[in-house]
Amino acid sequence: MLAQVNSLALEGLVAQTIQVEVDVAKGLPAFDLVGLPATAVREARERVRSAIRNSGFEFPLQRITVNLAPANVRKEGSGLDVAIALGILAATGQIETGLLAGWYFVGELALDGSLRRVDGVLAMAWGLVQQQRDPAIGPVRFLVPSRNQAEAARIEQIATFGGQNLRAVAEGLTKGIFPPVGLGERTDQVECLEQEGPDLAHIQGQPLAKRALEIAAAGGHNLVMVGPPGTGKTLLARSLPSIMPPLTTQEALEATMIHSVAGALANGVSWIQSRPFRTPHHFTTLAALLGGGRPPRPGEISLAHHGILFMDEWPEFSREALEGLRQPLEDGWLTLSRVGGTVTYPARFMLLASMNPCLCGFAGDPENECRCTPLAIERYHNRISGPLWDRMDLQVAVFRPEYGLLRQESPGGETSAVVQERVITARKRQLRRLRQVGRFRQVYANGQLTAEMVRETCPLDVKAETLLQSAYDRLGLSGRGLYRTIKVARTIADLRGADLIEGPDIAEALQYRLP
Amino acid sequence: MLLPQERECWLALAALPGIGARRFHALLKRFGTAQAAWLANEQEWDGVGGLTSKGWRKTLAARKPELITRLQERLALGDLYAVTLRDEIYPELLRHIPDPPPVLYVKGTLQPEDRDAIAIVGTRKASPYGEKVCREIANGLGRYGRTVISGLARGIDGVAHRGALAAGGRTIAVLASGVDKIYPPEHQGLALQIVAQGALVSEYPPGTPAEAGRFPARNRIISGLAQGVIVVEAAEKSGALITADQALEQGREVFAVPGPVTVRHSLGCHRLIQQGAKLVVSIEDILTEVPGSLAVAGQAPTMALSAQETRVLSKLHWEPKNTGELVQATGLPGAELAVVLTLLEMKGLIRQLPGGRFASA
Q1: How many Å lie between the alpha carbon of A513 and the closest alpha carbon of chain B?
Q2: Quick one: chain A helix, strand, coil %, rounded to 5?
Q3: The CATH number of domain A449-511, selected from 1.10.8.60, 3.40.50.970, 3.40.190.10, 3.30.70.1140
Q4: Would the pLDDT of B105 be above 60?
Q5: Percent above pLDDT 90 for chain B
Q6: How many CB pairs under 8 A join A and B?
Q7: Is A357 on the interface with B (CB under 8 A)?
Q8: Nearest by CB to B343, which of A227, A475, A507?
Q9: Do A206 and B338 touch (CB under 8 A)?
Q10: Is residue A472's pLDDT more than 50?
Q11: What number of other Cβ atoms are within 10 A of residue B34's Cβ?
Q12: With an 8 Å Cβ cutoff, are A508 and B335 in contact?
C-alpha cells in the first residue's frame, strides 16, 4: 500500500516542501530510503524502526521503500523522522491514509517514540505561510515537537500543533483532537539573548564616545573606537545593548529565524526580543564568522542580523575575515556558494569595532611614549583596508580619563534608560519616514540607507549644503565619505526631532572621523 | 675664480673618500693647487694631514681620471651645480667658519639676501607645541624676508621649511647626502618646493647616500650658513645641540625656545638657556638680536569667530587637549563641542592630532 506525507526541509532560511512517499509491498524484509538523503536522514531508518515498535505499533516485516521528493534536493537533518514513521503507519493501515492530507510534519524521533526538538521550525512555519498564499493548497496544519511549538506558534497565520510522542500524534490524528500542549508557554519563553551590559551612567568621561554610541544606536551606524589599552573601549561597547531600541516584530522574526536555523536558540527560548550582540574572538574561523560548513550554516554576522557585531581588537582579525565583511556590510546579506548548493543568509548587522592606535597602544597618548616606528604604525593601520575603514560611519578616539573622573563618587552623566528613550523616539521617526517613501521592506534605519535613498530621505538646508561642500573640498572626503556624513547627520537631526538637516548636524557628523 | 682644469680637480679631490674639509685644506696648503695634489705621486702625500701614505691608501686608490669625468657628466645634466670656496656666490658667512666645505653642491638658487638667514633646528619627534612654535617662528621669519635654514629631517626641520614656504619666504635645506638623494623619503615633495623657493645644499657629491656619520658635519654647515640658530625642542643629547655647539664656535647667536620643564624634548633647550642662550618668546626677540638688512612684515589675517569658537580655541592655545578635557574646560556638551571643533577645523584654526586630540594650528 502507498502513503504520502508532507514534511519540510530547509535550504538556508528557505523552507521546501518534501513529499515523503512510503510504499510497503510483499517481498524480503527491507527498508530502503531514496531521494538524496544525507547521513542524518539515512539514519532515520533505525530511529523510525525502534520508535514504531516502542510506541506499541507494528513494524512491517515487508519490503519498505521510502522516497523523498523532489529527489534532486539533498535532504539534511533529522526533521523528516516523524513524516517517515507516519507514512509507514499509514501504508500498513495502522492509521487512516486520508487523515494525513493538509498536514505537515516535522520532528526527530527518539527510540522510545517521543518527539525531539529540531532546529529551524520558525523558518519552516514562515515558509508554510508563503505557500498558503497559493489557494490551490488550502489551509495547512503544521505539527512540530511540543518543545518547538511555542516557536512555531509565533507564526499566527497557520495552525500549529505540538506532539509529545508518536502514539499521541497518531491518536490525535485519528480522533481529530490535539491536547493544547505548551500553548501557554508562548509568552514566558520570550527571552533576551545577552544579559544587559553596564549602564552608561557608570562610565566616566568619554563624552564624545558616548554621544557616538547614542547616534550609532539610533541610526544603526557602524562605529569604530580607537584608543590606548585600558581606556574603556570594551566597557563602552558592552554598554551599547542597554541603549539599543528593542527589535520590531518583523526584525525579531528574522533574527529568531536565523538563530533557530543555526540551532543557536538557548534552551526553552522561542523568541528573541532584544538585539543580538555577538562578540566573535579574532581567532574565529572564516566559516564561523561569515557562515559556511556543510550544510552551510549562518555565521556570526548573520547571528548578529538586526543586532550588533562587536569586533574587539579589530586589526587582529585575519585579512580575509575583514575583507569578507565588506560585501555583507554593503548589501545586508551574504550568499554562500558551495558545491552542494547556494544559500543566502541575511546579515544586516551593525559593526562595532575597537582597536589600539598602534601595536604598543600608545601612539598619540601624551603621557605614555609610543615605542612604534612610523612605519610600524602605518603597517598596523594598513591591516584595516581603506574601503573597510570608509564603511565605518562613526569613528571616535577614546582616551585615558583623568584620575579625578575615575575616582568620582557619584556616577556621572545620563543613565542608559534616558538615552534609550531618545534612541527609540529617533528610530520611530526613521521607520515612519522610510514607510512614507515606500522603502520599509528593505531598510529599517538610517545606517542602512543606500545613496539613492539618501537623496529621498535627507533634505539639507542651505547652510548644511554649504558646509558639506566646503568640507568635501577641504577635508578631502570620498564620495562614500560624503554619504556617510549625510546619513550620520540624518540620525543627529532625528535625535533632536527635526526633518530638515541643518548646519550643526553636518558639523557634528563631520567630527566623528579619524584621520 | 678657478681655472676650469683646477676647478675640476677641486671637485674631484673633495669627492675622494676619506677627504673632508680639514684634509682638503691641508692638501691645498701642502701642494698649492688641487691639480698638483691630484697628480702628485703617492710618496708626496706622506705626512699630509698627519697621515702616512699607508693611511692615505684608500684615498689614493680612488684617484682615477674616471672620477673627474663622472662628476663632470653628472653636472652636465644641469639639475644641480657646484659652488667652490673660490667662487663669488659661495655663501659669505660660511666662507669664514673653521674648515669651510671646499665645494657645495646646490639644487635651486642661492641669493644675496640669504646672508640674513636664520637656522631652525630641533628634535625629529616634535610635540604639537614644538611644531606650533616652530611654524610660527618660521612663518614670521618668512614674512620678514629672512631665509630659514634647516636640515630637511623629520619633525622640527620639516615644519621649519614648511613654515617659511607657507609665508612665501626662502628656505635652504642642508643635506647629509647628495642633493639628489632625499632623506627621509616622505620629504620628497617638500624638497621640490624648497628647490623652487630656495635651495638644497650639500658638501657631498651627488649620489652620496645618507649615513649617520655625516650628520654632525652637516650640522656645522647649517649654523655656518646662518646668522643665528634657533633650537626648538631638543633632548639633552641630540643633533640639535651639536648644531648649537658649532654655532657658538662659529660665533653665531644661539636662541632656545622654552617648553614645559617636565618634557624630555625641551630639556636641551633649557640647558642652553642656562648656559646663556637667548630665550625666545616671539619673533621680535630674534629680529632685534640679529637685524637683517631688510625688514618687511606681512599681516596675519583675522577671522570672525563665534563666542563658542573663541572659547574652545582659547583652551587650545597652549597645549593640545582631547575632547573629554575640552568638555570639562568649556562646559559645552559633547554634541555641541563636536560642532564647534569641526567649524574651527574648517577655518584652519585647529587640527586633529593622532589619538584624537586637538591643537591650535
Answers
A1: 9
A2: 40, 20, 40
A3: 1.10.8.60
A4: yes
A5: 28
A6: 80
A7: yes
A8: A507
A9: no
A10: yes
A11: 24
A12: yes
Q: pTM here? A: 0.69
Predicted confidence at residue A187, as pLDDT, reads 43
**Is residue B300 pLDDT above 50, yes or no?**
no
Q: How far apart are CA A334 and CA A347, in angstroms?
A: 6
Q: Of A214-218, A308-312, B91-95, which gets the smallest average pLDDT?
A: B91-95
**Architecture label for domain A200-243+278-400:** 3-Layer(aba) Sandwich (3.40)
CA distance B31 to chain A (A): 49
Mutate to test the interface with B, among A233, A508, A514 (most CBs of B within 10 A): A508
Residue among B339, B344, B345, B347 with most chain A CBs within 10 A, to mutate: B339
Residue B237 CA: distances (Å) to CA of A272, A329, B152, B211, B272: 64, 51, 19, 19, 12
What is the residue whose three cell numbers read 520570550?
A190
Inter-chain CB proximity B341 and A511 less than 8 Å: yes
**Interchain CB contact of A206 with B (< 8 Å):** yes
Give chain A positions within 8 Å (CB) of B154: 374
- Bridge partners (DSSP) of residue A277 are A308
**CA separation for the pair B183, B191 (Å, rounded):** 9
pLDDT at B7 over 50: yes
pLDDT at A426 (0 to 100): 95
Write down all domains in chain B, each with its CATH number in brackets.
1-72 (1.10.150.20), 112-289 (3.40.50.450), 307-360 (1.10.10.10)
Q: Is the pLDDT of residue A161 over 50?
A: yes
For chain A, domain boundaries: 2-186, 200-243+278-400, 449-511
Q: Do A397 and B357 touch (CB under 8 A)?
A: yes
pLDDT at A129 (0 to 100): 86
User: Which chain B residues contact residue A395 at CB under 8 A?
Assistant: none
C-alpha cell at B53: 701614505
**Residues A6-59 pLDDT 10s:** 999 988 888 889 999 999 999 999 999 998 888 888 899 999 999 999 999 999
Contact B15, B92 (CB under 8 A): no
The answer to whether B354 faces chain A, any CB pair under 8 Å, is yes
Q: What is the pLDDT of residues B227-286, one digit of tens each?
A: 999 999 998 888 888 889 889 888 888 999 999 888 888 999 999 999 888 998 888 888
* Total length of chain A: 515
Longest Cα pair distance anywhere in chain B, in angstroms?
82
pLDDT of amino acid A215: 96
Q: Taking 90 as the threshold, does the pLDDT of residue A337 lie above it? A: no
Query: Could you confirm whether domain A2-186 is CATH 3.30.230.10?
Result: yes
Task: At A82, list the grid cell.
Answer: 516523524
pLDDT of B301 above 50? no
The closest alpha carbon to B241, from B339, B150, B123, belongs to: B123
- Reported ipTM: the value is 0.76
Do residues B233 and B156 lie in contact, with contact meaning Cβ atoms separated by under 8 Å?
yes
**Which of A210, A363, A401 has its CB closest to that of B354?**
A363
pLDDT of residue A193: 46
Residue showing cell 538524496 = A36
Q: Amino acid letter at B57?
A: R
Contact check, Cβ <8 Å, B337/A206: no
Do A208 and B323 lie within an 8 Å CB cutoff? yes
CA-closest candidate to residue A168, choices A237, A104, A109, A245:
A109
Render the burial of A53-66: b for 16+ CB within 10 Å, e for the rest: ebbebebbebebbb
How confident is residue B57, by pLDDT bands cut at 50, 70 and 90? confident
CB A74 within 8 A of CB A42: no
Tell me the mean pLDDT in the region A377-382: 88
For residue B114, give the 3-state DSSP assignment.
Answer: helix
Give how far the C-alpha of residue A234 lies from the chain's centroid of Cα atoms, to the nearest Å: 22
